[in-house]
Amino acid sequence: MDETGFTRALLGWYDANGRDLPWRRHPEPYAVWVSEIMAQQTQMDRVVEYHTRWMDRFPDIHSLAEAHEEDVLNLWEGLGYYSRARNMRRAARLIEERFDGDFPSDIDSIRSLPGVGDYTAGAVASIAFNRREPAVDANVLRVFARLLDMDIPVRDRAGRNMIEDAVRRIIPADRPGDFNQAIMEFGALVCRKNPLCETCPVREFCRAYEGGTVPLRPVLPASKQPIRIDMATGFLVHEGRVLIQKRKLSDVWPGLWEFPGGCVEPGETSEQAVRREYLEEVELAVEPVEKITVVRYSYTRYRVTMDCFLCRYSGDPTEPVFHEAVRGGFVRPAELSGYALPSGHRKLVDHMLSDMRFVHLFRD
Q1: Which of the two ends of the chain, N or C, has the fewest CB atoms closer than 10 A to its terminal CB?
Q2: Who wins on pLDDT, 107 or 1?
Q3: Bridge partner list, 242
């Protein structure tokens, strides 16, 4: 491949077509780092929205280091993979302690931060500090698998190493950050899963296009079948307040708040599951009195269908005893916006806010 010609064509395309993203206007290290962590597993339009809110609330490393975890998780709600937010807070504190509050500029120090791997370290080093470091994400793997017409799996160590070596070899010394962003942007907008080969500005350099193997590249491992789960939860209202609990740090969605509930066991109805889960989790006898909605959501390989019920005490009210949570209690429904909830439980709240049967619960 004519590496010089490819680089020139790619950067020319990027200069004309790169998206106007907030952190690209002023590539300050902290802002770039936040954007790269947010962009993992997240569409770019959502990243822009969340990045803007984040920078308003936590404009620098010090403000993030001093923040309460609850505030960080609440602002992160909706992006998923909450360990990313916790790691960012931990990293900010480490930067304060180890680097006097200045974001480190060398690749090894960046990589030492909690939650930062090879890709993120390379992206921050190249974009914010003009370091000649590769930043290889899924988009870059796909682009170079086609450029080089690679017939080996790109996610295997050998395939990834081959691509990292190729990027490192051709990344220009004068514009390393722009080059890395250009490759990622090109993979997102042109060399997509269903590529736009007929309008591709660098197809003359693509071996897969020349050989007619674009549909076969990249070589990926066989996809795993999703795991489907039926769940049920109850929205217990008592004296104008609703019961919530905070998940343990060892659980899925650690540290987030939720309404008691869980998996529907074989032979159970959803209503029976709610009654059982309330007894097991908080030692409360409740009765589902009305079905609110059915919420569907996904995480990793799991596809969840969750039946949601409005509940009341089935006997005399008693205080909850929390077995599956670190703490909890009754709060006014209108206060739920201040708690970080898993996406399925947030969908339940959002539905109730739009359903006239339940909207009165959220009025102070």
Answers
A1: C
A2: 107
A3: 237, 331
Tokens representing 145?
């698998």
Closest by alpha carbon to 247, among 239, 238, 256, 236?
Answer: 256
Q: Say if residue 218 is preceded by a cis peptide, omega within 30 of 0.
A: yes
pLDDT of residue 106: 95
Q: What average pLDDT does the structure give for the chain?
A: 96
Contact 278, 286 (CB under 8 A): yes
pLDDT grade, residue 141 (50/70/90)? Answer: very high
- Give the residue-averaged pLDDT of 54-76: 97
Q: Are 167 and 140 in contact (CB under 8 A)?
A: yes
For the beta carbon of residue 117, count every other beta carbon within 10 angstroms.
Answer: 10
Q: Which residues are catalytic?
A: 36
